[in-house]
Write a sequence for this structure.
């Protein structure tokens, strides 16, 4: 990529140099003194270059505008309309009818049977058993028990000091003789004979009346309802759904096209003249060739004025 760019630069440089030489050959030769004086002055050349220039222009375009319009259309609605129809109807009537029917009847017949039945009897049987009994074999004893103060002693104590508090002599305690029971429990065993009831079951034969079921046939009159078909014509009215057309109005949006002018800009390729500086080289001692070293073993020789 770098080598290609270098080759393009060399080709452009050689073309510019050839153009400059041609222009100098075609130009009138100046005087020797003037040429020697302006050998290093820059020179210009008119070159035609193509450039893209913006250009404004007017054009028309089609635009669609939404317009609401009302239109009429035919719509349909369902209505219930009464309609009279005729149909054939079969009706079943119940007619009573008397029949003689033989049917089986269950009858209860009494029968006497001999059966053995267990009879329950209660008997009193003597029974001997030992009974323990607690007997109190105590006795009464006479004991001396201190008796409490009497009413007079209590009154005297309330109003006077007691003699036991005033003197150092012991007080006389009064006692009384009381008869007290002294218990002495003793367990005793006694043989007792008592009567005990015993239940016994004894088989007994007896006559029992039992009802047995017997099936018998008997005739009887029975009233039976019989269904008899009957056909008749009847008229009835029913509601029938029908579709009825009617006119309605609705709003519809339409897209209406119309043209409008628009200002646009476009790029136009035009040829423009420009003044380009051209390098010239004289054969004086002030100019010397220059070598530029490029990569890849390439060299470019340029004749120009020294600075």
């Amino acid at each position: 990529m770098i080598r290609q760019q270098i080759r393009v630069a060399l080709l452009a440089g050689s073309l510019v140099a050839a153009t400059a030489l041609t222009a100098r050959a075609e130009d009138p030769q100046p005087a020797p003194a003037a040429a020697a004086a302006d050998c290093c002055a820059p020179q210009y050349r008119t070159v035609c270059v193509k450039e893209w220039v913006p250009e404004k222009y007017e054009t028309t375009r089609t635009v669609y505008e939404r317009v609401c319009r009302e239109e009429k259309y035919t719509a349909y609605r369902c209505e219930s309309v009464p309609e009279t129809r005729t149909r054939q109807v079969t009706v079943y009537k119940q007619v009573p009818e008397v029949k003689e029917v033989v049917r089986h009847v269950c009858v209860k017949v009494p029968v006497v049977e001999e059966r053995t039945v267990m009879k329950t009897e209660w008997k009193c049987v003597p029974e001997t058993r030992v009974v323990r009994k607690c007997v109190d074999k105590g006795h009464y004893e006479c004991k001396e028990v201190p008796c409490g103060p009497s009413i007079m002693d209590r009154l005297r104590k309330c109003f006077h000091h007691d003699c036991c508090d005033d003197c150092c002599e012991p007080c006389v305690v009064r006692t009384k003789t009381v008869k007290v029971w002294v218990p002495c429990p003793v367990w005793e065993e006694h043989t007792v004979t008592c009567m005990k009831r015993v239940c016994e079951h004894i088989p007994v034969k007896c006559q029992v009346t039992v009802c047995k079921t017997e099936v018998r046939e008997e005739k009887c009159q029975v009233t039976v309802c019989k269904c008899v078909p009957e056909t008749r014509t009847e008229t009835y009215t029913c509601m029938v759904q029908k579709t009825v057309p009617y006119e309605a109005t609705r709003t519809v949006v339409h897209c209406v096209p119309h043209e409008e002018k628009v200002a646009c800009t476009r790029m136009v390729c035009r040829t423009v003249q420009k003044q380009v500086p051209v390098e010239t080289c004289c054969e004086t001692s002030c100019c010397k060739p220059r070598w530029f070293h490029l990569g890849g073993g390439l060299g470019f020789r340029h004749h120009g004025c020294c600075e």
